[in-house]
Amino acid sequence: MSETRTLRAGVVGLGMIGGGVAVSMARRGRVPAVHDVRPGASAGLPGVGDPLDSPAAVARSSDVVMVAVVTADQARDVIGGENGLLAGAHPGLTIVLLSTVALPVVHELAALCAGHDVGFLDCGVTPGDRAADHGMVAIVGGDQATVDAALPVLDDWARRVVHCGPLGAGMATKIARNVVTYGSWRAVSEAAALARAAGVDPARLAEVIDTADPEGHTLLTLLRLRGSDGTLPEAAGRKIQPLMTKDLDAARDLAAALAVDVPLVEVARTRAEQTLELDGQDATVPADGDLHRHGLQMMDRVYGPGFSTAMPGERDPFTDETVDYLFAQVWARPGLSVRDRRLLTLGVAATVGRPELIQVIATGGLVNDELTPDQLREAVLHLAVYTGWCKATATHAGVTAAVEAHTAKEPR
Fold first, then answer.
1. Which residue among 120, 320, 403, 412 sits deepest, i.e. has the most Cβ atoms within 10 Å of its Cβ?
2. How wide is the angle at C-alpha 71 spanned by C-alphas 165 and 11, nearest 5°?
3. Secondary structure of the chain in the HEC alphabet?
4. What is the pLDDT of residues 220-273, one digit of tens each?
């Protein structure tokens, strides 16, 4: 037999993950020595022998031992306890920690092993329910030599081994992966609540998602867009931001209308620029330094495609400052969304009683799907209380004109 096949394996902890790891190795001919605090823990594990009486006994019978316990204290006891793995350690032994624990615990256990000349790897695993079917990913942290020494055994139970970096990198990656899992569960919970409140069976939402994105690529879009330096290109963030903020604003509005609590949506909207790594960047100066062109583009973003073509052909100081400062530098700032700035501007315009200005502002909100006709009508009533009924008449006229013009353009 080759040297890789003569490596002896062990598993301590025969729960869903550890038991599955043991079964997966046994099916490939590398029957592991095992231990569990439950004497009959291996009875239902095909091909796996009876548990040995201690972790130390497993260490004496193994070259690579997987530790699959639940808590940090259990890991400490299994590795460094009175009858722990280190009590039975021999030169060349490698301990692979599969348990999810805090990073300081990883370094603590690694130092303990190093004091006994024993190799140590932190190794997050996922998905746990595929352990017995050679279906898990091993998420490994540790030095390359130790990974190479354990790799033949890891390959016997993992469909893929991903070496993430030095000690602790595997555990950090697993913890980060868990954030994606549980964070997405919260997102699904809020989305389902919104759908249900709107009279939609959440099963239809699941059907749409499964059909449109069966492999889940959308979930990891931002990871895949990152450059070699690990950062999201600013151009990508700028391209995504308008759609992201518009859609999250729509979700907030729907939630408010239906009285659905969506804290994750609120956080996602509030921190959209941070998510896209635009937070703190100076969005007022374009990369090429062409403020006028940037201002015209921002004007179209605010009031709809082609709006900037109405600007006078001949430039003058007032027109230049409108484009180069008001739109290129103020409207483009990341601190408030376009929708936020639109509502502020609508409030100011309502104080001057100019329906034609109100119509332009309201039309931009309708074109960009930031505001619905009902929301604009509600804004008129709200502003009437603060600006006075006479001025609100002009606001109402401008909003009505915008809604009627926009509605007339919609396909029937």
1. 120
2. 70
3. CCHHHHCCEEEECCCHHHHHHHHHHHHCCCCCEEECCCCCCCCCCCCCCCCCCCHHHHHHCCCEEEECCCCHHHHHHHHHCCCCHHHHCCCCCEEEECCCCCHHHHHHHHHHHHCCCCEEEEEEEECHHHHHHCCEEEEEECCHHHHHHHHHHHHHHEEEEEEEECCCHHHHHHHHHHHHHHHHHHHHHHHHHHHHHCCCCHHHHHHHHHHHCCCCCHHHHHHHHCCCCCCCCHHHHHHHHHHHHHHHHHHHHHHHHHCCCCHHHHHHHHCHHHHCCCCCCCCCCCCCCCHHHHHHHHHHHHHCCCHHHHCCCCCCHHHHHHHHHHHHHHHCCCCCCHHHHHHHHHHHHHCCCCHHHHHHHHHHHHHCCCCCHHHHHHHHHHHHHHHCHHHHHHHHHHHHHHHHHHHHHCCC
4. 888 888 877 778 888 888 888 888 888 888 888 898 889 999 999 888 887 888
> pLDDT for 158-191, tens place per residue?
999 999 999 999 999 999 999 988 999 999 999 9
| Distance separating alpha carbons of residues 199 and 189, to the nearest angstrom | 15
**Closest to 66 (Cα-Cα) out of 26, 145, 7, 10:** 10
- Length of the chain measured in residues: 412
Query: Cis bond leading into 91, ω under 30°?
Result: no
Give the whole-angstrom CA distance, residue 77 versus residue 63: 19
> What is the C-alpha to C-alpha distance for residues 173 and 138, in angstroms, rounded to an integer?
11
Q: Which residue matches tokens 């583009």?
A: 297
Domains in the chain, start-ordered, CATH in brackets?
Answer: 3-167 (3.40.50.720), 175-275 (1.10.1040.10), 291-409 (1.20.1290.10)
| CA–CA distance, 143 with 270 (Å, rounded to integer) | 40
The reply to whether the predicted model has a pTM over 0.70 is: no
Contact 248, 269 (CB under 8 A): yes
Find out whether 20 and 128 touch, Cβ atoms under 8 Å: yes
Closest CA to 287 of 332, 252, 317: 332
- pLDDT, tens only, 96-110: 999 999 999 999 999
Can you tell me the distance from the alpha carbon of 47 to that of 29, in angstroms, rounded to the nearest whole number? 9
**342: number of Cβ within 10 Å:** 21
